[in-house]
Write a structure and sequence with these properties.
Helix content is 30%, strand content 25%. The chain contains 11 helices and 20 strands. The protein has helices spanning 2-14, 19-24, 37-43, 49-58, 93-109, 128-140, 152-161, 171-184, 207-216, 329-339, 373-385, and strands spanning 75-78, 88-91, 117-120, 143-146, 166-169, 195-198, 221-228, 232-237, 244-247, 252-257, 270-277, 288-297, 307-309, 314-315, 320-322, 325-327, 342-352, 355-364, 391-393, 409-412. The chain is globular and about 65 Å long.
């Protein structure tokens, strides 16, 4: 924690030239420093995405959260926009190096070495995570391949031809690739992929999704982690306990708070993850409300880094209350994947008389959906959630597939 404090002091000392935080921290005394991370958390207000969006609209195109003159910045990336208006984010070479250092931690914790061959199965657009993952692996000495602009069949063939040992993509796309392989007669037992490095969705820490991925990619271990364009790479999977993520606390001050009260929660309790990135001084975030729902946990693996049981459980604002029951997207996915026989699904949330109702549409898997998939899923929902959830069937191949973050939930007004 002494290292945290030293980095925090350096960060706070730079903010006098940052218009966004100069305004925000006026009157807190933090521009003169903090005696400890705990004192900092008490005195520093939260930063929200809504504030950042409003700031970029008021000060286009990059906003005023810039510590240095524009000439110092060499990278521009953008959030996916999956939770609202996209944000542009600038980085200096120093901030970029800080993020690559964090990504190296993610790679090393997954057992990645210079002997590995990594296939990145996504299009390299403005989203930050693709680029940092790629460049940090290259820096480690890995042989890296950018699979942008390729069909799923072409990617599968390249994975085999290049003898890739690590596949980096979303959990959804790893499942989809296996589905395409089965359709095209490509035997994934021929692949040398030993690690599925997945992120972008909660699925990587959901037991049923992990089990499905291991079944589809024989011999491969599933490795989860997460990050955000706004803050960079954040966590790595516990080397001892699968499904537990550790925040890289040498790089972040991490808190878990009650979303309604802003007060810290204890171990075993759920709350919203709050992050302060200590080394990204060019475009910093202090006590950023990530919107990620997590559960604090005790971990006996030897690290003191904050442990998150079940990884990212979902988004705080994604919870739907259905007849008095709190329902999260990750819970629905766990039930569907555990039941089996489903290739893809969608969830429709409708409001009737101010009450939310769920309807789940599923596309049966070619290898085992069966005529009873509706009945089995309906029974599984009722057993797990104590709710009756209508289940509808879709024609094979009719539901959308996703390369990046899956968007399976739709909301309809009543």
């Amino acid at each position: 924690m002494n290292d945290q404090l030293a980095q925090l002091k350096v960060l706070l000392a730079t903010l006098g030239t940052n218009p966004f935080y100069t305004r925000k921290l006026a009157g807190t005394g933090l521009l003169d420093g903090a005696a400890s991370p705990a004192e900092f958390s008490v005195r520093c207000p939260f930063t929200t995405k809504a504030e950042l969006v409003a700031d970029q609209q008021a000060h286009p195109p990059h906003g005023s959260n810039l510590t240095f003159p524009l000439e110092r910045y060499t990278r521009c990336h953008q959030t996916s926009g999956s939770t609202g208006s996209p944000l542009r984010w600038l980085d200096t070479p120093e901030s970029w190096t800080w993020m690559l250092d964090n990504w190296e931690t993610v790679h090393r914790q997954a057992g990645t070495t210079a002997a590995d061959r990594i296939f990145f199965a996504f299009s390299f657009g403005p989203f930050l995570g693709f680029w940092t993952a790629f460049e940090s692996a290259q820096r480690l000495g890995c042989l890296v391949f950018a699979g942008g602009g390729m069909t799923s069949v072409a990617r599968l063939q390249a994975i085999l031809d290049l003898r890739a040992t690590i596949l980096c993509c979303t959990p959804t796309y790893a499942i989809h690739l296996a589905e395409v392989a089965a359709k095209e007669g490509i035997d994934l037992r021929r692949s040398q992929v030993k690690t599925l490095s997945v992120a972008g969705e909660p699925g990587g820490s959901i037991p049923a999704v992990r089990a499905r991925l291991r079944e589809l990619w024989p011999g491969a271990r599933v490795y989860d982690h997460h990050g955000m364009t706004e803050v960079g790479p954040v966590s790595y999977e516990c080397p001892v306990r699968s499904g537990v993520l550790h925040v890289i606390e040498r790089a972040f001050i991490a808190e878990v708070v009650n979303p309604a009260t802003g007060k810290s929660v204890g171990k075993g309790e759920r709350g919203e993850l709050i992050l302060t990135n200590l080394g990204r001084t060019g475009s910093p975030l202090l006590r950023y409300r990530t919107g990620d729902l997590v559960q604090r946990s005790a971990c006996l693996c030897g690290t003191t880094d904050l442990a998150l049981e079940g990884g990212i459980l979902g988004r705080v604002d994604d919870m739907v209350v259905v007849r008095g029951v709190n329902v999260y997207p990750s819970a629905i996915e766990e039930i569907i994947r555990r039941a089996g026989g489903v290739a893809e699904y969608q969830v429709r949330v409708s409001q009737r008389h101010a009450l939310a109702e769920l309807t789940v549409t599923v596309e049966p898997a070619v290898d085992g959906g069966g005529p009873d998939v509706e009945r089995r899923l309906a029974a599984a929902f009722e057993s797990s959630l104590a709710l009756r959830v209508p289940v509808e069937l879709a024609a094979p191949g009719s539901l959308p597939r996703f390369e990046s973050k899956a968007r399976r939930w739709t909301r309809e007004p009543g």
